[in-house]
Amino acid sequence: MTWRRERWTADHPLPIGVTKRAQVGELVRAGDIIAAGAALAGALRVPGARRLGLSPSDLDRELRVPVGSDVVAGTVLARVGRRFARSVTAPIDGRLLHVTVDGDLYIAPIVDRWTVRATLDGTVARSDDAVVEIEGEAWCFQAAAAYGPDAIGELTLGVDGPDADLAPTRIDVRLAGRIIVGGARVSAEVITRAHACGVAGLVAGGVPPAGLRVVYGDTVTASGSPSRDDRPTVLCLMGFGSAVLPRAVYEPFAALAGARAAIHTASARLFVFSTADVGRAETPSPDVVMGEGPAAYAPVERAVADADRGDVDQEEPAQTDEELSPSPSDRSPSER
Amino acid sequence: MTVSTGTEAPVEQTGVALGRSLRVALVHGREEASRRAVAHLALASGAEIVARVRATDPRSFVEAAQALRDAKPDVVAIQGGAKDEGALAELLEALRLGCGAQRPMPRIFGLVDTRVAHGLRMHASPFEFERFGAPSEMVEALRDLRRGGNGEVVLRDAVIEDAARALATTTGANALAVDVTERSTSFVLASPDGRTEAAHLVPLGLGMGADHVVARASLDNVRRWLPWPIDAPALLERVFNRGRRPQGPATAEATVLLEMALAREAIAHALRDTAEAGLDVSAMRSAPSILITGRAASFPKSGQSLLVLVDGLEPSAVSTVFREPDEGPAERIAMVVSVIPRRPAKIRIVRASGRSVARVIPGSFGLVAMGADVEVAVNGAGVRGHGRSGELGVLIDARGRPLSLPERDGERIPAVARWHTALGATAEERTST
Distance between CA atoms of B53 and B64, rounded to whole angstroms? Predict the structure, then answer.
């Protein structure tokens, strides 16, 4: 669990139906569209080489439309002969998707469009129909798990200290498009509210797994669930539940606030694009016990403020590694 | 792990590992036998099943291709007959569309006859297509991939299979090994002639695989095994955080009880997958010798390992139970007598020092103290068998099969607590119920 500034690579898997994609060597910035394509429905198989009387290997030569092109119904896909010409035409509007080994053609109707955006400033290192890989330099924090689609936005501190939980009331539409640092914990309510307000993503020390299940479904696991659909993006920095951010983790957030950032959910990484010096490049973070109760670190001002307030809400002591938390009214049989 | 080659021989240090994770997509014909065959291959090889596509898959060509792309398989295992060839060829086209650009490319392993293989090989281009004549050859090839080509590595699966085989040979009867680790759950049924049937499920375990146990079994099904009520969110948090750090053997009671709950569900769900893959689950449940290994064998008390086994596996006959922790010697812990009486019945227990009669009422569950490790024969109440008592004695389990827990907390929690107490699985003294 460290902040490091070095060269990173980020894979961007592409759905089927890519139309355009960035080429190897191209310079991109986080947030740029690096691939675009069409979402396709059930494909039709159209006889190709057989209809034209060709061997499958010769079909490529006679194709009038490159594979991956959009076509309208009646478009000649392949044609042979002059006086007694034989041709294959598109039966529907859609995309010429695939040519089989037998020389048949798959045409699929287009039902939607999609784009994939870069999550790293840098150079395209690999680009094919399955993935665009970008290599670039950035500050990076390797988190425990990430959920939802990739997110890009301005890094914004949503809490006053590393031990604070992000309150739902602090989220509003003015934070749309930003990546909010939520302190020790973000709840399901915060996640859904942030998504409704257009917040790009949330970053927190811990996220209660029960909340993740509410948002992402009961099949969600601790290894994260990157997706492409319209869902909230959440990055769990330390683990699950509530985790006070150690000094080595929180201070760089404060220093980097306002910088462009991106959450790459497949690798559970937060990239921040800033040349700011946030301290040592390889600051080892201390071992963090999840939800260790009182803040391991709090700025002096906050500590003073807390002392002045007196009636400040205390975070419930969370469970330790060797202890389950029974319901308040329940005890183990041995205790009874 | 240290493998001793004999009492006087020097100890041979062997590198035992889970092997690298191998992602396998299963593509099979329309017959149920085909589905079972290919699932059996994946389970036997310890690979992680990341996608299943049937020849009659209702998904469209594009959806099947996308599912295969998202699965990022290392290997695609294909099984089917001659009448499936056309449908399998179409699925290979979907694979070409979905994974043609994947690096490294998936390899295709086919368990098909030569003629079908010839047809499919053409459609598999540019993927490497290998045909196997026997399931065991494909399992070996898949394990070789898990070893990463390093012949020095001994997979944990192979060690468990050897242990089951050795137990079967020694006892002259079928033996079952049940292994539960951080991220895998295994069953190996060995017969005295050396044949084995194995299923190694990944990821399904007590550490990194614990969240998968909850995702499959549901949180309520894990929670029902705890002998006191607990907050669902707090339990979920514990489970999710288990995978974050490697855990040593549990020592605190609450942690042990959580691991026991997870282990029961891991075993039960692994058994379900094993049955779906066509393995003989009834033979596993009735094996005269059962060996528990891994994390399930490393609980502080042998009664805890025994309870996990009987609740998760639900043995159906008379079995002698052994346990072998990763860092300790094997020990015989108890003899389990599973009976399903409809009315109060008697079981005669015969041993060298005499005979006794145990009265069994439906739903009862408890140990009959027998003295350490004595030869015992039992008969009555529809059960007959013999074995050795081990450290704990004879466990008579008359809770019925399938084992069902009361729905309401008020009934279930006392029952579960009673079972724990009966085997000394909690801090309280062991007593018969």
Answer: 8
DSSP letters of A262-298? EEETTTTEEEEE-----S-TT-PPPP--TT-SS-S--
ipTM over the 0.90 cut-off: no
The one-letter amino acid code at B361 reads I
Chain A residue with the nearest C-alpha to that of B236: A209
Asked if B105 is an interface residue toward chain A (Cβ–Cβ < 8 A), one would say no
Crossing angle of the two packed helices B302-313 and B409-422, in degrees rounded to 10: 130
Question: Cβ–Cβ of B237/A45 closer than 8 Å?
Answer: no
pLDDT of B373: 75
Whole-prediction pTM: 0.86
* B198 inside 8 A of chain A by CB: no
Q: Which residues of A touch B234 (CB under 8 A)?
A: 319, 324-325
Q: Give the domain ranges of chain B.
A: 18-146, 158-422
B-chain residue closest to A108, CA distance: B62
B108-146 residue pLDDT tens: 999 999 999 999 999 999 999 999 999 999 999 999 999
In A, minimum Cα distance to B244 occurs at A239
Number of domains in chain A: 1
**Is B253 close to A15, i.e. CB distance below 8 A?**
no
Asked if residue A46 belongs to a domain, the reply is no
Identify the closest residue of chain A to B97 by CA–CA distance: A98
| B233 vs A contacts (CB less than 8 Å) | 208-210
Can you tell me the distance from the alpha carbon of A84 to that of B395, in angstroms, rounded to the nearest whole number? Answer: 86
Nearest CA in chain A to B258: A324
Average pLDDT of the segment spanning B141-158: 90
The residue type at A280: R
Q: B68-98 pLDDT, tens per residue? A: 999 999 999 999 999 999 999 999 999 999 9
Position A54 in a domain: no
In residues, how long is chain A?
336
Q: How far is B231 from chain A (nearest CA, A)?
A: 5
Q: Which domain holds residue A8?
A: 3-35+116-273
Statement: residue A317 has pLDDT above 50: no
Summarised one tens digit per residue, pLDDT across range A146-200 is 999 999 999 999 999 999 999 999 999 999 999 999 999 999 999 999 999 999 9
pLDDT band, very low/low/confident/very high, at A280 (cuts 50, 70, 90): low
Interchain CB distance below 8 Å, B61 and A106: yes
Residue-wise pLDDT tens digits, B168-194: 999 999 999 999 999 999 999 999 999
Kindly determine whether residue A290 and residue B241, on different chains, have CB atoms separated by under 8 Å: yes
B18-146 is classed CATH 3.40.640.10? no
Q: Would residue A196 count as lying in a domain?
A: yes
In this complex, do A209 and B122 lie within 8 Å of one another by their Cβ atoms?
no
- In angstroms, the separation between the Cα of residue A223 and the nearest Cα of chain B is 9
DSSP codes joined into one string, A86-155: EEEE-SSSEEEEEE-TTS-EEEE-EEEEEEEE-SSSEEEEEESSSEEEEEEEEEEEE-SEEEES-EEEEE
Q: What is the rounded radius of gyration, in angstroms, for the C-alpha atoms of chain A? A: 26
Question: In this model, does residue B7 exceed pLDDT 80?
Answer: no
Q: Is residue A290 one of the residues assigned to a domain?
A: no
Q: Min CA distance, B291 vs chain A (Å)?
A: 28
